[in-house]
Amino acid sequence: VQLQACGGALVQAGGSLRLSCAASGRTFSSYAMGWFRQAPGKEREFVAAISWTGGSTDYADSVKGRFTISRGNAKNTVTLQMNSLKPEDTAVYYCAAMAGNGVWRTADKYNYWGQGTQVTVSS
């Protein structure tokens, strides 16, 4: 499966952004999806995950209550709605796909990765 993430931008603290990830290739609904991010000088970290039906979601504590992950299997997309953004949310955001079900925080569970989209939050 090929993943294409978009929606990153420069935004002021307190603002909102909506990231989208379009998938092509194999059956999208057979993949659990996740969002990860990597800030300069830091390791890639888990942000959010969603099961293949969308019935289960998981969030990093740092974004819980501010970010929402959702998916549209008919359109082969997964979305990350980010509200109340903080400067510490600044990072390159990656979407990832995992063959199978469940919600996983570990990056090495994911088989496919998008190219990343830059989110910059100014204070």
Summarize the structure.
By secondary structure, the chain is mostly beta strands.
Structural key phrases:
123 residues, mainly beta, four-stranded antiparallel beta sheet, 0% helix
- Summing up helix and strand content along with how strands pair, one would put the structural category as mainly beta
- The end-to-end distance, rounded to whole angstroms, is 37 Å
Mean pLDDT: 94
- Taking all Cα atoms into account, the compactness measure Rg is 13 Å
The fraction of residues in strands falls at over 45%
The major beta sheet can be summarized as: 7 strands, mixed
Low-confidence stretches: none
Overall shape: it is globular
Helix content: under 10%
Helical stretch tally: 0
Helix and strand pattern? EEEEEEEEEEE
Chart the SSEs and their pairings.
Layout: E1 2-6, E2 10-12, E3 17-24, E4 31-38, E5 45-50, E6 57-59, E7 67-72, E8 77-82, E9 91-99, E10 112-113, E11 117-122
Parallel strand pairs: 2-11
Antiparallel strand pairs: 1-3, 3-8, 4-5, 4-9, 5-6, 7-8, 9-10, 9-11
Structure in words:
- Helix content is 0%, strand content 50%.
- The protein contains no helices and 11 strands.
- It has strands spanning 2-6, 10-12, 17-24, 31-38, 45-50, 57-59, 67-72, 77-82, 91-99, 112-113, 117-122.
- The strands form 2 sheets. Strands 2, 4, 5, 6, 9, 10 and 11 form a 7-stranded mixed β-sheet that branches.
